Sequence to fold (291 residues):
Amino acid sequence: MLDFLQQLVSGLALGCIYGLIALGFVLIYKATEVINFAQGDLMMLGGFVAYTYITILGLNYWLGFLFAVLTMGLVGMTIERFVVRPILGYPLFSIIMVTIGLGFLLRSLAGMIWGTDDLKIEAPFSEGVLRIGDLVLAYDKLSVIVVTVILIAVLYLFFNRTRLGTAMRATSENMLAAYYMGIPVKRVVSLVWAISAMVAGVAGVLLAPITFVHSNVGLALGLKAFPAAVLGGFGSIPGALVGGLIIGVVETLAGFYLPQGWKDVAPYIILLLVLLLRPEGLFGALGRKKV
Fold:
C-alpha cells in the first residue's frame, strides 16, 4: 500500500507536468484553432531560461522562476506575431508543419546556446521529504502538485472574473462575433499565446529540479501531453488537466507494477479505450460549451 501511495504521488506530479503542457495545447486551439506541436519545446525552453537565471546568473530561485515565466510570455507573443499570425487562414496542414518546424528550431537553438549536456536546477525543496508514518513523499514531487493547483486556481479566476478573461473566452467561442463586439481580437490572441507559453514555462521550471533538462525533453513530454489533451477532450481546459493526470498516473503505475516496456505503452492503451467508448474525449461535450 505504501508503494502504491508513493507511486501515485509520483504519477500525479508527472501528470501535472503533462496537464500543464496539454493546457497550452488547448488554450491555443480554443483561441485560434491552431495545434501548436512546439508546446513541449516551449516547456523545454522555459527550463533552460530558468537555469540561466537561477544557476548561471545566480538569482534567487523564486525570482528566477518569475523572470523565466515572464520571459516565456514574451517568447509566446513573439511567436504569435511573427510566426503564426502571417499564416493564419492557410490550410491546416501548413500551420501544423510550421509548428513542427518551430519545435525543431527551438531544440536546435537550445542545443547551440546551452549545449547538449543534461542540466539540473537546484530548488529549495529539491532534497527534503515529508514523512507521514512510514510513507515518505519527496518535496519536489509535492511542490509540482501544489504549484499546479495554485496556477489552475489563478487561471480559473482570471478567465471567469476579469474583463480580459471574458474577452478571451468570447474570442475562443467565436472570433468574428468578438471582433464585431469591439474586442481587440489580435491582442487577445497574442495574450493567449503568451499565457500558453508562460504555463509551459512553469512546467519547465517545475520539472527541472526533478529530472534533467536537455534539448529533447520537450519533444518526449509533448508526445505524451498531446494524447492527454485528446483524452480529456481537445478544447476542454478541465479535460486537459484530467487527461494529464490520468496519463501520468497510468504511466508511473505501469512502470512500477508491469514488466519492462509497458510504461510507455499503457497510457496509449488507456487513450484508445477511452476514445473507443467516448470519441469526443472525457470532457468533449463540456469543452464545446465553455472554457
